[in-house]
Amino acid sequence: MSQTSQLRERLEQSFGYKRFRPGQSKACRAAMDGRDTLILMPTGSGKSLCYQLPGLELDGVTVVVSPLISLAEDQAASLQENGIHAVILNSSKSKKQIESFREDLRSGRSEFVFTTPEQLQQTDLCELLAEVGVDLFVIDEAHCVSQWGHDFRPDYLCLQYARKRLGDPPILAMTATASARTVDEIISCLQLINPVTVSNSAYRSNLRLAVKACDSEASKDELLHRLLTYDDGLVGNEPAIVYCNTIKDVERLAEKFSNLDAPVLVYHGRMKKQDRLDSQNAFMDGPPAVMFATNAFGLGIDKPDIRQVIHYTLPGSIEAYYQEVGRAGRDGKNANCTLMFDADDLRVLKMFAGGHLDSSQLATAHHCLCQGVQRCGSEDGTVALTDLTKISALGRQTLKNCLQQLASRGIVAPAGRGRWRLLLSEVSRDITDRIADDARRRAEDRQIALRQMVEFAGRHSCRWSAILNHFDDDLTADLEDCRCDVCEPDINRSVEKAVEAEKREIAEIIS
Ligand code: ADP
Ligand code: MG
After folding, report:
1. Do 179 and 472 contact (CB within 8 A), yes or no?
2. Is the CB of 43 under 6 A from ligand 1?
3. How far apart are CA 335 and CA 84, in angstroms?
């Protein structure tokens, strides 16, 4: 039997799917052949299967890194539903649980291990896994390595070292963000070797993109009210996300709209961890709700029936915008995505785009690690970040950021369990200058990304073709069924007309 028909049989047996979706078969075969693989497919197109199937076929353990532990849990649960044993390693596990986890690995009972980059660094998990034998290292939401786009997670920068510690298994990296820039960053940061690239069009015909110019907070609030209450048989009482750039807006709007028919939820980075989790769970599993959130919400969530994504403020890049609207309509049914655009939003956004490390901070962090290894390093030459903070003038977070930047150049390396190792004992001014320059350049890149987003919002041309152009996607010819507000303004007008009629009706009742 050919490899492909064997895989197809397995697809049906283990997952109950009749056929592969576009790109899945190619991705599975590449991973089975031990190649590094990069999967660029839109949200909802079935990226997970591209590691699940090879993971089952290959003998060793498949390690899957997700940016958030809640995502890791979702992924593990979906495998377990299919009767496949998977374990999750997170910091909330007790000693006893970790012991039984080790047992499961040693006995070969677990085929999949889900974790986060932090966990891989903080524990001796890598060494344990290497002993058992890892034959696929999966990096989900790989665009998190990108320092200028969206969802940046510094710990992703260290995954190339995790691969080495795992015994050099092939990497399978997956993302929905496919700009040439991000792809380059993923390949260089993860040090993918001659990767097989599987790339599907970013076009999602079921997402109706619309941009609404607004000139004040009041006009935005009024539009938002209409969007959240108008029932055109598509969005009435169905799950919606409203994205805002500031926590202040999230809280104000949640308060203002607290008497909607649907439950109102909030999510942002300053909430307590448990509150955030409760809020996410309520959105995922509870009755249809409206979620008011900052961009901290939504990465990788697998909720099929989100019917509306509304941007109350402009996202910082087209990548971010695409990721966020992509969370709507994963079930393939129509969904509406409305971007509100007020030139005033730009002030806040420009503020977000700044921020970088300077050369002397990098040199200080390096010096501190040299000192730390001598003064309080353990036998294996590693030293804990906690000990370093005691002898450094830099704050813990800055110190960690600096070490991560130095690690991305192979000058230092994370050694697991929150410990760091020195690889080069000398680092010239030239090099720290260069790293700092890169950081500055990334801040400039963020400004450029923002400008592109403003241009997108301001231009009156097909929304989807603008996005596909941005991603160098050459399938622009298939846009015949595009329903964006430029290609099909009628839907909009009929909504407006109906709203007008409704207003008249109410006026009549009142008078
Ligand atoms: P994403 O690309 O966003 O990571 P997922 O991997 O979460 O997407 O998959 C989205 C949905 O598609 C899941 O509910 C999954 O069960 C379903 N799916 C994946 N592959 C297939 C297939 N070959 N046939 C039918 N459904 C599939
Ligand atoms: Mg996914």
Report:
1. yes
2. yes
3. 33
Q: What is the mean pLDDT of residues 253-267?
A: 93
d(CA 222, CA 340): 11
Instruction: Name all domains of the chain by residue range, CATH numbers in brackets.
Output: 3-199 (3.40.50.300), 207-351+481-510 (3.40.50.300), 359-427 (1.10.10.10)
- For residues 15 and 121, the model is more confident at 15
* Number of residues in the chain: 511
Q: What is the pLDDT of residues 306-327, one digit of tens each?
A: 999 999 999 989 999 999 999 9
Distance from residue 46's CA to the centre of ligand 2 (Å): 7
Ligand 1 lined by 48 (C-beta under 6 Å): yes
Mutate to test the pocket of ligand 1, among 8, 41, 49, 331 (most ligand atoms within 8 A of CB): 49
For residue 11, give the DSSP letter.
H
In ligand 1, the atom with minimum distance to the C-alpha of 304 is 14
Q: Where are the beta strands (DSSP E) in 385-481?
A: 412-416, 419-422
- Residues around ligand 2, an ion, CB closer than 5 A: 47, 300
Q: What type of residue sits at position 348?
A: V
Q: How confident is the model at residue 234 (pLDDT cuts 50, 70, 90)?
A: very low
φ, ψ at 245 (rounded to 5°)? -85, -20
Residue (of 168, 86, 101, 173) closest to 135 by Cα position: 168
Q: Dump pLDDT digits (tens) for 160-183.
A: 989 999 999 999 999 998 788 889
Whether 302 lines ligand 1, by a CB cut-off of 6 Å, is yes
Ligand 1 atom with least separation from CA of 11: 23
pTM: predicted TM-score of the whole model, two decimal places: 0.81
First to last CA, the chain: 77
What local confidence, expressed as pLDDT, does residue 20 receive? Answer: 94
